[in-house]
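SAMPLE LOG
Freezer: B-3
Tube label: C17
Construct: single chain, 256 aa
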Amino acid sequence: MKFRYLLITIFSILLLTLSCSDNSVSDSETEQEEVFTYDHEINPGESTTDFLTSDSFEELVIEIDYMQGYAPTQEALDNLQQFLEERLNKTSITILNPTEIPAVGQSEYTANEIRDLERQHRDEFSEEGILTAYFIFVDSEFAQANVLGIAHFNTSMALFGETIEGASGGVGQVSREDIETIVIRHEFGHIIGLVNNGADMQDNHQDTENGRHCDVDSCLMYFSVRTTDFFANVFGGNIPELDEQCIADLQAAGGK
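STRUCTURE (predicted):
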């Protein structure tokens, strides 16, 4: 009898041990299924709702890298902060201190080379409740002549320091602060859905001959704003704003 009781006890302990082990595996699998992921390598405009609303992300964090000699001006960053606070429904928007990265020294960069630089240097990625964006200021020009900036992913943009430097600061030229302000805001406009690029148009104002741009020549989203051609004709330091149609598009998509 004692031997039989001992066998039953041992059997019960084994069952309990196996049961605990099974539960542990199940918990681990559940944790793996709940890991947060976010795709930062899709087309500009595909994260429009995430930027404009607080439905999934209440906070926005912006990481900025720059190559030696091409740090963004503080005035441009302050102007970007103001622009975003006026248009995005976020509880907080934080622009991190810019970080210097090694200069590559190329004469020009293609969009794919810019994407590779981001993969090499980007440190901040979106997590539960926090959306992140990435800017990189490079030391040369874009492969397409006279372009000052591009939005190359859904949360990313690049500015071309040498081109900005050549178009600013001289006699009769716009200041570097103003050019950076305008180009950063313009490219961010593409990221948050303009024009007809994630934020549906309330009235037709797309300049289809020039892609995702506004047909109002005084609007921030006018096609030539991203080029040196625009700044060759700007006097008085006027910074273009979004026109009423672009603002209506953002508001209809969940922005301000």
